Amino acid sequence: MRPATGTNRGPSAAAGNRAALIAAAREVFAAAGYDAPLSAVARAAGVGQGSLYRHFPDRTSLALAVFEDGVAELEALAAEPGATLDDLLTLITEQTIASTAFIEMVSAYGDDLRIIAVRDRVAKVLDGKLAEARRVGHVRADLATEDLILAVGMFAAVLTMRPAPARRVAAARAWALLRKGMDA
Hints:
The chain is an all-alpha fold. The chain has helices at 14-32, 38-45, 49-55, 59-79, 85-98, 101-108, 113-135, 145-160, 167-182.
C-alpha cells in the first residue's frame, strides 16, 4: 500500500491507483472479510473514495479484480509442464487460507454473471488436470469437475468459520477427509 500524497496527480495516476486499490482490497478483505468497509480499502490504498468508485463501481467489481490475480495464478500453474491436479488443489488451498473473503463473495453472489465467468475459468483449469489424474489412476474414474468444485466449496466453508490462525490446521484436516473420497 502506498501513503496518500495529498496532491491530485490526475489521470496519470489511474493505473497506480487501481493497483494500489487491488493490493489494499486484498489485505483489507483478508483481515476483515468481504463486508469490510470500502472506505477502509480506499484509505489503505491512499486514495479517495471517488477514485475507488471510478475504478470499481461496486464491491463485487473490486473483489473480482483481486480474485482475478488468483485465477491467473491457477491458469499459469496449470500451463506448466508437469503440473498436477494436486498442485492446483494445493494452490487453491493456499489462496483460500489467505483470504476466505472471496469464498464469501462467491457464496453470496453466485448468480452474478461476472462471478459465474470466473468460476467457469477455475472449473476449466481443474477439468484439464482432473482428466489427466483420472487417466493415470490417481483419482476415482467417476470423479467429476463439479465434484471438485463442490469439495473446494465445502473446504472453504469450513475455513470461513475458523479464525485465521486455525485455518491451516483445519485446511489440512478437511483436505485429508475430502481426498479419501477422491482417491482411486
